[in-house]
């Protein structure tokens, strides 16, 4: 298995390089949103000979006009062709409502928006000219009850793949939206994974995907049990995400801890 870390911005690349040099990380998942102003050669100069993945957070491909999508794809295609990422991934969420930005990203109405989502996924894949992975959402509303069922239909009908986030699935379970077991049919075919820390909001008591805390032990234990039970695929990746607590010592500690739980030695692929 390849262990990766998320490159949030050009400012974090020295930390990423340090973790790779120490053998704690094997690749970098680049957040395209914060690098798109740079030519791909700049990324390669900062991380020479390092395998890369490409993660798109706020493409808003479900909300943009087709003309806007074509323009965005024109920026991203040269990146994809030059960097040859392990995978390219995106999110199925809503950032705006009636033209105005929402205070928090919102889960989709899978029943009402289902056909539009499928149509847009096909268009986005064609414009980027690449296979796409879509990450499961950390549900906090009842809409999440339909998420796994919709993902199964979506992936089959659009020939896309799942980027399975262990923490997001557990958050939905903790929030009493949907059990992690709903994802089992799709997890068996997944090859690329995320894990991150989360926090409990003090007023609502909901688990919120914050990426700024250590990964919960129950998430690590479930992840370990899954990898032990499911035969290894040709290639398998796991990105340990840190967003709001980007400190070298924290990242080191988490990578060492997760490698120990999963039984992966430093630098092992």
TrEMBL record:
Coiled coil: none annotated. This is Methanobactin biosynthesis cassette protein MbnB. Pfam families: MbnB_TglH_ChrH (PF05114). It comes from Aquicella lusitana. InterPro entries: MbnB/TglH/ChrH, Xyl_isomerase-like_sf. Signal peptide: none annotated. It comes from the Bacteria.
């Amino acid at each position: 298995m390849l262990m990766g870390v998320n490159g949030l911005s050009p400012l974090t690349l020295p930390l990423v390089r340090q973790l790779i040099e120490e053998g704690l990380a094997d690749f970098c998942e680049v957040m395209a949103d914060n690098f798109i102003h740079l030519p791909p050669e700049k990324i390669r100069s900062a991380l020479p000979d390092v395998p890369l993945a490409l993660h798109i957070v706020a493409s808003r491909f479900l909300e943009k006009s087709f003309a806007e999508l074509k323009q965005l794809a024109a920026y991203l295609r040269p990146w994809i062709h030059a960097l040859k990422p392990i995978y390219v991934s995106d999110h199925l969420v809503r950032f705006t409502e009636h033209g105005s930005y929402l205070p928090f990203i919102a889960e989709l109405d899978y029943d009402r928006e289902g056909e539009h989502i499928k149509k847009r996924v096909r268009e986005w894949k064609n414009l980027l000219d690449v296979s796409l992975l879509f990450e499961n959402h950390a549900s906090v509303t009842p809409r999440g009850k339909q998420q796994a069922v919709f993902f199964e239909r979506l992936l089959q009908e659009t020939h896309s793949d799942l980027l399975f986030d262990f923490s997001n699935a557990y958050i939905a379970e903790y929030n009493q939206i949907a059990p992690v077991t709903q994802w089992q049919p799709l997890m068996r075919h997944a090859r690329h994974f995320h894990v991150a820390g989360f926090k409990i909001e003090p007023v609502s008591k909901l688990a919120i995907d914050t990426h700024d805390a250590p990964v919960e032990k129950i998430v690590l234990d479930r992840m370990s049990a899954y990898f032990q039970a499911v035969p290894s695929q040709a290639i398998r990746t796991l990105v340990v995400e840190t967003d709001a607590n980007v400190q070298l010592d924290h990242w080191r500690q988490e990578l060492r801890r997760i490698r120990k739980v999963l039984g992966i030695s430093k630098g092992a692929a």
